[in-house]
Design goal:
This is Putative deacylase. With 342 residues, this protein is of the alpha+beta class. It is built from 6 helices and 18 strands.
Length: 342
């Protein structure tokens, strides 16, 4: 195998220490160490698992999961991918962070137990701020500069369930749009969620777009457990996308049909509860609905004489996600209805 020369990420501007060599040829696991002094760990470090596989010359792909700590399919998929590959199979380099928000992953919470921060709303981050900001800065300032592409795996967490889909961001100048859509299509899911206004610039997607690095995310089930079908979609999607990028030499069957392209771009895409009660769904994620279709009811078992409140779709489209929290209060998320891309 020809010798490859890859840049070591520059961690000098970060308060997170690298306890792993991310540039030398071979395959290795290790940790990154966050310096954060609190009552639980005043003089130590909070460790974040990291791994890399460095093969022959080729692109560097940054693989992330566990940005939210209650989203489990991604960490399992990246662990299984790492265990399945050897450097001889790789053209390029894989930098793998399967539990990017490791404190939240270990606590099983969406946001960090160290500071309450939502990592996917913290970019580009700040090395001198609290842990969530420091982790975001690590990605923005240290890892994105050495990456040629990024794949960021998510799910609905404990609160919701998403139709397995790939997410392709659209930037203001459109320069990355073709590469992002090509990666999302290669992932092989039946649905591609195209991000426009919904591409939060405080997210991994937003940071990669700002840095000029092609990036896709994926939403893969959820509900607080590792779903069999979403995990299979994650594993297949990773390998298909890495093959598309030239990192793997796998052979894949062509897609049976182009993916359904959808977006959240219209008033009414977010369905929320108008009042407190238990949400009883009549339709589920993956169903297509017309405007006015019944989605479910808010019922009040504590008020037996009250009639259930109907929840109806305001727009036509695909139910992209649904709540997994039965008890609702005013404003609680019930569903996303995605519109077909014009």
């Amino acid at each position: 195998m020809p010798s490859a020369s890859f840049r070591q990420p520059d961690f000098t501007a970060s308060r997170i220490q690298a306890e792993i060599d991310l540039a030398s040829p071979g395959k290795r696991g290790g940790h990154l160490g966050l310096l954060w002094s609190d009552n639980a760990n005043p003089l130590g470090v909070y460790q974040f698992p990291a791994a890399c596989i460095v093969g022959s010359p080729g692109p560097t792909v940054l693989l992330l999961a566990g940005v939210h700590g209650d989203e489990y399919e991604g960490p399992v998929a990246l662990d299984r991918l790492y265990k399945s590959l050897d450097p001889e199979q790789i053209r390029g380099r894989l930098i793998i962070l399967p539990m990017l928000n490791a404190p939240a992953c270990r606590a099983g919470t969406r946001c960090s137990p160290l500071d309450g921060g939502n990592l996917n709303r913290a970019f580009p981050g700040d090395p001198d701020e609290r842990p969530t900001q420091a982790i975001a800065h690590l990605v923005s300032a240290c890892l994105l500069p050495v990456a040629d592409a990024v794949i960021d795996l998510h799910s609905g967490g404990r609160a919701s369930w998403f139709v397995p889909c790939a997410l392709a961001a659209r930037g203001r100048d459109g320069a990355l749009d073709p590469a992002n859509l090509a990666m999302a299509t290669a992932f092989g899911a039946d649905v591609v969620w195209v991000l426009g206004a919904a591409n939060d610039n405080r997210s991994v997607n937003g940071a990669a777009t700002a840095a000029g690095v092609p990036c896709i995310a994926a939403e893969l089930g959820g509900g607080g457990h590792v779903g069999i079908a979403p995990l299979q979609a994650a594993e297949t999607g990773l390998r298909r996308t890495l093959t598309h990028l030239g990192v793997l030499g796998d052979s894949h069957d062509p897609l049976a049909a182009p993916p359904r392209l959808v977006e959240l771009a219209h008033a009414g895409h977010r369905v929320t509860a108008p009042e407190p009660g238990l949400y009883q769904p009549a339709r589920q994620a993956g169903d297509s609905v017309a405007a006015g279709d019944l989605l479910g009811w808010i019922v009040r078992p504590d008020c037996p004489d009250d009639k259930p409140t109907e929840i109806r779709a305001r727009i036509p489209g695909l139910i992209l996600a649904e709540t997994r929290h039965a008890w609702a209060v005013p404003g609680s998320f019930l569903a996303f209805i995605a519109s077909d891309l014009a």
